[in-house]
Specification:
Helix content: 55-70%
Number of helices: 10
Structural class: mainly alpha
Order of helices and strands: HHHHEHHHHEHH
């Protein structure tokens, strides 16, 4: 019964994440049918809006960064079964994302506006390429393990999830963090950038850079010189000529931030 309950819990949380994530794409891109988007026509006082939005981003960043750390996981799994630890992380991360979408205060002061139709199409293409990179990167890592489904399924079958191994599939041979690169492209690619959207892009960029620092510190602690060599060979975000992982190097299972 515990195994069945874990699978049901994992499936419900994954569905909640999936719906929220799709809505978040529409939120960032000001896309229908989302009723609340990053540039919704709402009136907000400037200073309170900035403060509230920064607090929302801080909640998201703290939850992601703290709960992804190995030390926290060791403490957390004293109370939460190992099989549902990842699912619980995904649930709380999704709640933090939903809170941003729900409570975001638009700041509609224009920063830049692109009017050339070709340029607008190019920027919109970058936006979708970014989200495509995010999705592809999750499957290159292990989509179902990343969102806790593999763990609960293994518990139902009475199996242990294999230990993480170091590997560099496809995009990870050219950039250490294609998932984060995808987010950056999606957050910054806006034909019309408002002050509120710019605040969101700057805040999430800062979190991503912090997340990379913390994650790579954990990878070095786990894989040592193997990851250090990988970091020397492959660019952090932007693929560079001549920067490519050697075939013998394997990519670690990467925690989501």
């Amino acid at each position: 019964m515990a195994g069945i309950a874990s699978v049901l819990y994992g499936a419900v949380v994954y569905l909640f994440f999936f719906v929220t994530f799709l809505y978040a794409i529409a939120f960032v891109g000001n896309l229908p049918p989302a009723s609340k988007v990053i540039d919704s026509p709402e009136t907000s006082a400037l200073v309170p809006a900035i403060v509230i939005n920064m607090l929302l981003l801080a909640v998201f960043a703290i939850q992601h960064s703290v709960m992804a750390r190995p030390a926290f996981k060791r403490w957390w799994t004293r109370f939460v079964p190992h099989a549902v630890e990842r699912t619980t992380y995904v649930l709380l991360a999704t709640l933090a994302l939903a809170l941003i979408v729900w409570q975001w205060r638009p700041i509609l002061m224009p920063v830049w506006t692109v009017t050339n139709p070709t340029a607008v199409l190019a920027i919109q293409a970058v936006f979708w390429i970014g989200w495509g990179l995010v999705l592809l990167s999750t499957f290159l890592l292990n989509h179902f393990e990343l969102f806790g489904l593999r763990q609960v399924w293994a518990r139902l079958q009475g199996r242990e999830v294999p230990a993480p191994e170091f590997r560099t599939p496809f995009l990870y041979k050219r950039t250490r963090h294609p998932l984060y690169l995808g987010f950056l492209l999606a957050f910054w690619a806006a034909p019309s950038m408002t002050l509120g959207h710019l605040l969101f892009a700057i805040g999430t960029t800062g979190y991503i850079l912090l997340g990379i620092y913390l994650e790579e510190r954990d990878m070095i602690a786990q894989f040592g010189d193997q990851y250090r060599r990988y970091r020397e060979q492959v660019a952090m975000l932007i693929p560079l000529p001549g920067k490519k992982a050697e075939p013998v190097i394997k990519r670690p299972r990467q925690p989501a931030e």
